[in-house]
Structures are given as C-alpha cells and as structure tokens.
Amino acid sequence: MVSSPRRLGYSRDVPPTRSELASTIAERLERDAEALRAAFAAARPVRHFVADDLLPAEWLEALNRVLPDPSTLALKSSLRERKRVGVAVREYAPLVGDTLFAFQDPRVVAAIAAITGLTGLEADPTLYASGISAMGDGDFLNPHLDNSHDGDQQRYRVLNLLLYVSPGWDAARGGSLELWEHGPRAPRAIEARFARLVVMETGPESWHSVDRISSPDTRWCVSNYYFSKRSVTGRDYRHVTTFAGRPDEPFKRVALAVDGAVLNALGRAFPRLLGRTKHRMRDA
Question: Residue 134: which H helix or E strand, with range?
C-alpha cells in the first residue's frame, strides 16, 4: 500500500488552485513512483496502477459538493452503456475545471510517464472523450475497447486517468472498474473508492467496463486521456470504440459483435466520420 498524501488545510471559501492541485498530485506520484512503477509493470490483464488518497479528502469533498446536477449532463444510453457525461467546464464551478486540468500540468504528465515508461505522452486540452461522468442507479458500461486514436485521428490514445470523487462509495453499490481478458472472461474488479486514481493503459487488448450501479447515490468520476504518436504496442493499429456483451448476456454478445464489426468497417473506410466529438466548451 502506498502512503497517503500530506494533509493540507482547506477552507470552504478558498478552494485549492489548479497549481496547488497539480503540485500535490505530482508530489504524490513522484514520492511513490517506485512502487507504482512495479505495480503498473506487473498488472494483469491490463497494465494499470492505483493511487489511493491522491488528494486531501476535504478538497475532493468540496469538489463533490459543486459538481453539476447529473440531469444537466449529456445522457448516453444504449445496449452499450448508460451514463451521463459533461465537458462544458466553463458552465461548472471553477474547481471542476481546475481538477480536470491539473492532470494536464507538465509535471503531472512527466510523473505518469516516469511510472508507465510510455514516451511522448500528451495531455488533451479539448477533453476528447473525457471530462466528468455521473452514473446512477441502474447505469452501466459494457466491456469495451476505447477508440484507438484522438478525435483528429492523429495520435494514439494510450492512457486513461480515472479519479473517483464520491465520498463513502463502496463495492456494494456497484460501479467498480472491471478489467477483462480478451473474450471477455472473468474480470478483475477495482472499486471506485473515494479519492482513488486509476491509471490504465488503453490499447488493442485493454478491455474494460463498469459494473451496474445499485445505489440511489451518484458515482462521480473525473477523467483524462493521454495520447502519443507512438502506440502502446509499438505497432500500427486502428479501431473505433468497440463493445462486447458480458458472458451472461448472449443476446448482447451477438448484437454488439455485429455493432462493432459495422462501426470498425465504417471507421476504416471513413476514419474521420467517427472522429471528434463536438464539445460545447474546452477549457475552464
């Protein structure tokens, strides 16, 4: 278990600045870099590391209090998933954008590069496919591979950074991140514990999902992607976001296999057709 960050004072009237957030994240990752590096290298079935208590609880409790009403976020609902997402950070409290963009600070990017060993990492100020997400009772995310590239189809998507910010959340409520062998078969579950950061590799075998929420409360996640001109395998590949059914979902397995084949065929024929999501806002 890696150590907790130093406790910092917090006044509800004076939230941490983006610089303070970034410095605290970087210091935490740099301090535990050796243990996190070993964890990332050894992790299966998808390379990842987990940093608990990444930021002081009072900072993230303050963030949780100012998150937008989930009903104001964009609903994504289909056989593949059900969740709400938002990137309109200029419409949110400043602490939301500051927390998101703290992970794009060069020192934080460098700390994560040192842990993962991945080169040429680039943060994404447009928040392509990232931002904040809210999942409530009955929401889910089926096993899937993330889109291989950025919205402009120029760089590989290589790392997914997930910060969980729902106080008191436990596995009994669902919402755990699940990492799957190709298939999928039995997943490894990582609880969406408050103040936990998960950094996972995303590539052609990085199947992952979120198990169904069974709670009236909201599971909040602050997410970023890092990109690189070099893929995680060192080889060229290209695919759109591709979903699969769970082992106990035979109908979904067939339907989503067809769905994935069609979307990937379209993506290969018209790579920009399934590219950038148009965001209403880009920065705080």
Answer: strand 131-135
